[in-house]
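[job 4417] fold queue: 2 targets
>>> target A
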Amino acid sequence: MKFVDEFRDPAAGRAAIERITALAAAQDRGFKFMEVCGGHTHTIYRHGIEQLLPAPVELVHGPGCPVCVIPMGRVDDALHLAAQPGVTLTSFGDMMRVPGSTSTLLDAKAGGADVRMVYSPLDALAVAEREPDRHVVFFAVGFETTSPSTAVTLQRARALGIDNFSVFSNHVRIVPPLRAILTAPELDLDGFIGPGHVSTVIGNRPYQFIPDEFSIPLVTAGFEPLDVIQAIEMLLRQYDEGRCRVENQYTRVVRDEGNLRAQQLLEEVFTTRDTFEWRGLGWIPHSGMAIAEPYADLDSERRFTLPGARVEDPPACECGPVLRGVLKPWECGVFGTACTPETPIGTCMVSSEGACAAYYEFGRLRVADEPDPLPLVSADRARR
């Protein structure tokens, strides 16, 4: 397939769903697959994929939304930075609305703090170049997908000799939380739909521990409807054929070895933290990226004293269980009532990749007597 329309072809989708139904029936058991990436979650609910699947196949949502996994204490640290005299704090748009313990970055901006939205860390560096009298902090979040752009920015800041710029690094790695999920007793998974964007950088080889140690398969997938459907079919086919391995559906983008230059860049600019806190998953060893010693003068955590407090999520918020795949968003008591995209209580309702935001936006609840929608090409049909 070469064109986007081909990845949304209803006839191809129906044929793949028929094969999935036959494969699931042949096994005579249920399957629970986790889509790791929030981008996959939005594809699934935008196009009604969950409703197309046979009853034995269940999809649950994982911790692959970079905004959703940031704990409240780190948001409070960013708010503390924004309140410092002479500091301009820059951030991606999603993080501006993520609640800390008392407020958001948007609230801080409304209260007079110099908080600005940027589209890349290089935009933040450009602000520092234009305004040498301000110290510009970039609030960096994301998995290995976005961390190379932060690394490039740090290198450029060093090369240009810009000393009024630093990075508050909240970059995280994808493999440690997957291990944490697999070792948790509360969730019994049969396979993963692997994250496509992250895998363009790290490749497929880091996932090999999943079949080797836990005897379940993983299929890295793209983000069009037929990408996700094909990944599910590939997972079921492995069970049908008695195989268990890492496979790559997203071959047009992902290579097994990943992007070696990006990996080298990450090794140079970042170091692995001993532990890092994740919303809903707690402290996970070796999961966070700190700025390496050669770039210490560009590290906000070394240039400023931060509160570093551990802040519990609001009692009503169920983002943690949602991120662990234990709970569906609509099972949260405040979903769609007290917690909406306009008035979010938790991160899963804020981010453009959040599972709660996907459920809220596309209103997908599985109803037994609802007709098969096959909405692979109709956004209007998905918004009812």
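>>> target B
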Amino acid sequence: MFEAVVDINAKDYNACTRYYLRKYLGVKEYILLALLLIGGLVLYFAFQQLLILILCGVTVLIMSGAIVVYIAFARKGYTEEFVKRNTHEWKFTFYEEEFSVETLEENGDKPYTEKFGYDRVERVALLKDRVYIYCGAALAYYIRYDNMTTGTFIEFCEFVKKKIEPAKFKMKEGRRRNKQFPYGR
């Protein structure tokens, strides 16, 4: 059994939600976007095709806008969920079959506990000094190495590796498969 008490702060929470963007945007997407923009510039200067340049610019603006909107909603979510409710702390308890998160609202006057099975975890990111646990797009948790109260951080990381299936540690999935036919037709 492992336990951790996490002080919730805006810097770490925003870093956790920005890291979740890696599920959707990786190096490949940025390279493709850069190639699209460069290709639009080349076609504009080579053939004076202003329409191609406009289409490339609009695509870049839409992608940039989506990223800005995601980050803005993450910050607003932090304000709504933690600042307005006066929530400052999570208490994690990890058992063999599930883990629980106790959120202490209104400075600990109103505790709220939620339990998750390890199969309900959507993604996990193990970094050198913290663990990000995503139980959905709106449920992001982080645990830093110094938050552990029972057990060590290294043992906890090994425990998480055993309990959660390896595919959930990849922030980006490979080829998208049809869920109805996972092994092809």
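[job 4417] complete. Note on B: Residues 181-185 have pLDDT under 50 and may be disordered.
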